Amino acid sequence: MARPWTLLFFFLFHFLYFRSSFSLLPPFLKCDTLISKPTTHSSNQLPDFPCKPPYQASFPFCDTSLPTSTRAHSLVSLLTLSEKISLLSNNASGIPRLGIPPYQWWSESLHGIAPNGPGVSFNGSIPSATSFPQIIVQAASFNRSLWSSIASAIAVEARAMYNVGQAGLTFWAPNINIFRDPRWGRGQETPGEDPMLTSAFAIEYVRALQGGNWESSEEIRNDKLMVSACCKHYIAYDLENWHEFARYNFNAVVSQQDLEDTYQPPFRSCIQQGKASCLMCSYNAVNGVPACASEDLLRIVRKTWGFQGYITSDCDAVATVYEYQKYANSAEDAVADVLKAGVDINCGTYMVRKTESAIKQGKVKEKDIDGALFNLFSVQLRLGLYDGDPRRGMFGNLGPLDVCTPEHKTLALEAARQGIVLLKNDKKFLPLNKNAAETLAVIGPMAFTTKLGGLYSGTPCRSETLHEELKQYVKKISYAPGCIDVSCLTEAAFDDAIRTAKEADYVVIFAGIDTTQEAEDLDRVSLLLPGKQASLVSSVAAASKCPVILVLTGGGPLDVSFAEANPRVASILWVGYPGEAGGEALAEIIFGEANPAGRLPMTWYPESFTRVPMTDMRMRADPTRDYPGRTYRFYTGSIIYGFGHGLSYSTFSYKFLSAPSKIGLSRTFKDGSIKGSLRQEGKQVYSVDYIPVDGMQNCISLRFSVQVSVMNFGKLDGSHVVMLFSRGLEGLKGSPEIKLIGFDRLHTVPFKSTGTSFLVDPCEHLSVVDEYGKRILPLGNHILRVGDDIDHIVSIEID
Ligand SMILES: *[C@@H]1O[C@H](CO)[C@@H](O)[C@H](O)[C@H]1NC(C)=O
Ligand SMILES: *[C@@H]1O[C@H](CO)[C@@H](O)[C@H](O)[C@H]1NC(C)=O
Ligand SMILES: *[C@@H]1O[C@H](CO)[C@@H](O)[C@H](O)[C@H]1NC(C)=O
């Protein structure tokens, strides 16, 4: 077993070791990188399925009148040991004597069905699927019902593809790791840096994907699943590679405090409220123990959060326990460690190959495998996989006509409209008047991209370049990329771009990054625009007739301070990866057919942030060591754009309509003795009194409602995101400066006020986490805030 002090040695050693011996290892699947597709799918091929006649009559596991657990136990009891072992892989073998075909557990669906796992193929009667905006863009909408509608649409397309043999039923999404560092290549796949926002997204996504919104949802509520969603990657995974550290060997050193108030909340919500049926453990170690081998971390999931489902390792993350992390002393120990910790299935072949010898060596018992198989079969049974012909099941009527439907395509457009963020708009330069613009120049390398979905994209229903729809709004359009590609290494084509820009009334410059710059196994080293892109923007802006519009692509934050400060750059829009209809939504926003309301779900840091070691997991600033902290909750340095930043063509003002000014704890504690013990627990540390939250008897009765109204002072209707924050108490060390406790996206009309209300749970929203990872509720004044400076004080008192 590795100890923290030995890990440093292992990192250095194994980095060199692996460089030279990589090819000697078994083929190493990188989860989520494209792998060769099985070619077994053909047009209109139906999936093979268990419990076909004559089997359905002979086996209890095929008997739909029995409870799921009885059926699962029965199936386990019918298997030989070698059959059991052959099922411990994402590519699970068939058991022909029981009429069970092979099953591929690994399908992907992050923002639309995607072929990144071998379970999905676009080679068949369904050649494409709706490609919604990447998650970071969806998050920017701050609209729960949008997230839910999208996940429901994906579930329909998933079932349709399953029915024609082009997808499985178990999907490994959503990715809900915290976007902790702006360089992270996969930050784009997540809902951003805030645990509350990420939790809210996870709940909507998982509920809807698993079938929560299906019309006849009676059966779904009874534990059936439309498809299975997977909360990943548990936990503290948000680094691909930095210096000698890679996700495969990284040991994330995480304090109990950060675990409790940053890293765990999205997973807790995904499981407790989302009721996800799968959890994926990550490659990295946490405090010296690989996540997939951590009994402590996985026990919380099953025992404390009540998880019902299967736990899969990330791809070959069982092999890494031994081969990269050197936590286990042998392959067999690695298998034993992860099974004991609670992993049920291995993405990859490691467990299939090593479990038999682990049993022979006495390290694994057959009953450990039985437990894993029980969890796996239970999920398959809930999916209806052993209910016979899927075409006769409740989703059997879904097929090619249910994919890329007009409704889903419209939803993809709506999602892009809602997620695009207006970062700068000097003197209300935007929107452009669609009748006034004669000529428009489209400049910049990103204008010509058709890869609008970012990582985990499938074949979209429609494919067009990002600038294409601008044509609809002007008489004449001209183009000049300025840079040959994203990396923009030379200025050779600048003159052409400058000439083209000079001749046009308006200029839109498309700059930014794509998945050649930020991806799986690829973190950025700089937050600046690649190569000479910034110089292209400045040169074109200086030469054009009017100030220019800058459109930024990519999921990670960019240091565009040069453009923010340049008066020749009138407006800046961030489109991220806006999905298949992104170009249309962008054109609508530029020409005022849609009013932007997206808000950044992550802080945009300056380039100087890159001096911070990516490996430092601490959220809180440490001024004594020149550590600035991370995310808007704790970061103390300067910013380019803050969390929640996003402009509209309207302006808005806020008012608290109603909120209590005092919450008396005695209301909850009628019994005098409890009140007495509460008084004792009103401990003094720091400079305020507090009560431990786990010592509170009844948090629910303390909940209160806060009513807020918003007034639209613009000429246009527009959606507006209201965010409710709570502000930390003075003198409470380690409490965030400010934190999001509620949000709502509202429809507003000019010169009318629109109201919304938030339910505040003091134990959850006003508590802070102490250095031991315990939640405490400070007594005294708490500040609630909407907008930049509208505050309301509520005092928590024991009376
Ligand atoms: C698509 O499926 C057909 C029929 O199985 C097969 O012949 C063909 O090679 C496949 N094409 C690709 C690109 O996989
Ligand atoms: C999956 O396993 C089967 C054996 O059960 C094997 O024939 C097949 O090649 C495997 N497929 C992949 C993609 O590894
Ligand atoms: C939220 O999204 C839904 C689904 O697309 C949409 O109907 C609704 O108008 C959106 N809400 C606001 C206020 O934009």
Automatic annotation (TrEMBL):
Source superkingdom: Eukaryota
Transmembrane annotation, as ranges: none
Single GO MF annotation: alpha-L-arabinofuranosidase activity
Principal cellular location given in the protein's record: secreted
Family matches, as InterPro entries: BXL (IPR044993), Fn3-like (IPR026891), GH (IPR017853), Glyco_hydro_3_C (IPR002772), Glyco_hydro_3_C_sf (IPR036881), Glyco_hydro_3_N (IPR001764), Glyco_hydro_3_N_sf (IPR036962), Ig-like_fold (IPR013783)
UniProt domain Fibronectin type III-like: residue ranges: 720-790
BP-aspect Gene Ontology terms: arabinan catabolic process; xylan catabolic process
SUPFAM superfamilies: (Trans)glycosidases, Beta-D-glucan exohydrolase, C-terminal domain
Keywords, in A-Z order: Glycoprotein, Glycosidase, Hydrolase, Secreted, Signal
Signal peptide range in chain numbering: 1-23
Full protein name: Fibronectin type III-like domain-containing protein
Species per Swiss-Prot/TrEMBL record: Acacia crassicarpa
Lineage: Eukaryota, Viridiplantae, Streptophyta, Embryophyta, Tracheophyta
